[in-house]
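Good morning C.,

I know you're traveling, so I'll keep this short. The sequence:
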Amino acid sequence: MIRYLYGDQLAKYPRLARTMFEDRADQFKTRLGWDVTVNASGQERDDYDDLNPLYVIWETAAGAHGGSMRFLPTTGRTMVNDHFLDLTNGVPFQSPFIWECTRFCLARGAEPGTAAALMLAGGEIMQGFGIKHFVGVFDARMVRIYNRIGAAPEVLGTQGEGRQSISVGLWDFSEAAQKRVSRVAGIPLQASRGWFTASFGDVVPQQEVSAA
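The tokens, ready to paste straight into the viewer:
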């Protein structure tokens, strides 16, 4: 199932939180060799985890992390504005209707459809919070995943070539894309909406967007 948790709610789900940060270390440091910080507990965290972001987490039947993404409104600090403006011609993203999505992570041996389930949850955030776009930085390996899911972004800028390339992309929402992703994930739209409603209710007031 999908859980939507702000950073200050992670303590209520210690195993889920611990395995998420451990899987991030495994993916970004061990498998991809990124220059990220892993603490003594074997967990990958950065400064943006201290900003009370919204996490979308696929929870396995055993209560562990299967995959996750991290969201922050661009009205505050974001990774793309702090480090990747060279890919956007120096233009920052600052709008209550644009959120940043980072740290797309899949656990080793993640269930089929996990990546699509996370993207489906992203669509729920767009609908529920009145968000028009997500912006995110991604590497070359993610292009294949996005294309397979049916949720490829508009690429705004790319640096490097081949497997070493890094891009900034912009996602929007469409009902057609939502249905495609639902089919790939194997999750009915009613179930996806139910997980979102369980966390936020039927309506999220717009003023909460800038306060999240």
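Safe travels,
E.
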